[in-house]
């Protein structure tokens, strides 16, 4: 934190209805300010404060959406700490999709 690289490891314990996160940080935060910044970063990256209950209620009204909502319960869209990292990820994913599509064409045509 505070201008130095850190490695984060997050794992979920508990149950689906009462989850807990166990966070390991190397090196450990030195100050209360670093701890607060880390908490804010995790809340943003993992969407910890996003309430999806309205979405689950809406999805529950459609049989196909209900199956998906149940299967992926708790999953939230990826979020990134900075706009730079968001753009890098978007470009990398787009390149991956284009490469997969490019390799699929010869396979589909027997080439």
Number of helices: 4
Task: State the separation between the terminal residues, measured CA to CA.
Answer: 51 Å
Strand content: 5-15%
Strands of the widest sheet, in order across it, are 1-2
Radius of gyration: 19 Å
Query: What are the segments in which pLDDT stays under 50 over at least 5 consecutive residues?
Result: none
Percent of residues in helical segments? 40-55%
Order of helices and strands: EEHHHH
Q: How many structural domains in the coordinates?
A: 3
Number of strand segments? 2
Largest sheet: 2 strands, antiparallel
Overall geometry comes to extended
Q: In terms of structural class, how would the helical and strand content be classed?
A: alpha+beta
Mean pLDDT: 84
Furnish the topology, listing elements before pairings.
Blueprint (H helix, E strand, L loop, with lengths): L6 E8 L4 E8 L5 H15 L6 H7 L3 H9 L11 H27 L2
Antiparallel strand pairs: 1-2
